[in-house]
């Protein structure tokens, strides 16, 4: 029993010793940390902090200390812009179309007996080129019959003319004065009937010969065959579709323009088609009539350009778009360095008149809200609505928003800009 009690007393003593050692360690660490801290409020001038305080510069009396939270001014890129004169450019979009789009129909009925090798879709044919033939047997017979009818009618007319002369001679020999009581005496109605019969026979011959001519189907103009709707041996009725053809002498592009775009065009262009021959006027002011078109969308033609001219303008406003259009023309489109085909979507750029008192700015200078931001002499931001007259090659041409000789126009306005905000302008070249 004594041994057990002695063992417990030794164990409790060991626990107390460990606890006292740990407490001492905590006290030593706390004392060390306290020695590294600055002096308290009542210890000014003691310790390392006092040395730091002594090196701070003195500030003049009455001047507030600078705040560490002072806001830095934002830098904005600006362009020094002066008023200049620029030639306007009007840009529009349209689709190339042939001058003529013909659904070729048959004038007669018959069976196709021959087709030309060139009579295939996609082929280019010349005016008057023979494309197909119809069976002409019945038409040859009709011509022969018409010729016989003409000969018979001419003979009847000659006979009637002879009988009329004989009747007048007999009337004169009779000794009667005046004119006969009836025109039948001198055979005048019979003569008129014979003349009408001959004229009718001649018209019938003309029709028969025309129908015989229509048995040969020929190209009505220089064109490209879009589709062929007949086959060898097929029978076609009057008015039946033979083919679809597009003319290839020139391409036309209808370009709808807004009122603002029309205002940038020369007066001569706006009046084209109103009793004015555009081709004649073009000799006097070629620059005003010039236009450049380039293909859009297709990878095979994108970037290719062609020269065109304004041929006429529409003297009406379209009901669906409420816009008026002008028509551009490209002569001999398939003979260009890069052929221009019907159905190509193009962008047209038309040279306009020279406009004075404009700013030339990068497109980025116009904000999403359609505003132009400037920086005044005091470095304050100002904004105005951008009145854009035209655009060209990533540049916009706007009416100046202030009277300064050199305006500081912000090149890339931000959405957080506010009128009157103080900024630091940094000049960049255009």
TrEMBL record:
<comment type="similarity">
    <text>Belongs to the membrane fusion protein (MFP) (TC 8.A.1) family.</text>
</comment>
<feature type="signal peptide">
    <location>
        <begin position="1"/>
        <end position="30"/>
    </location>
</feature>
<dbReference type="InterPro" id="IPR058625">
    <property type="entry name" value="MdtA-like_BSH"/>
</dbReference>
<dbReference type="Pfam" id="PF25917">
    <property type="entry name" value="BSH_RND"/>
</dbReference>
<dbReference type="InterPro" id="IPR006143">
    <property type="entry name" value="RND_pump_MFP"/>
</dbReference>
<protein>
    <submittedName>
        <fullName>Efflux transporter periplasmic adaptor subunit</fullName>
    </submittedName>
</protein>
<keyword id="KW-0175">Coiled coil</keyword>
<feature type="coiled-coil region">
    <location>
        <begin position="148"/>
        <end position="218"/>
    </location>
</feature>
<keyword id="KW-0732">Signal</keyword>
<feature type="region of interest" description="Disordered">
    <location>
        <begin position="39"/>
        <end position="69"/>
    </location>
</feature>
<feature type="domain" description="Multidrug resistance protein MdtA-like barrel-sandwich hybrid">
    <location>
        <begin position="105"/>
        <end position="243"/>
    </location>
</feature>
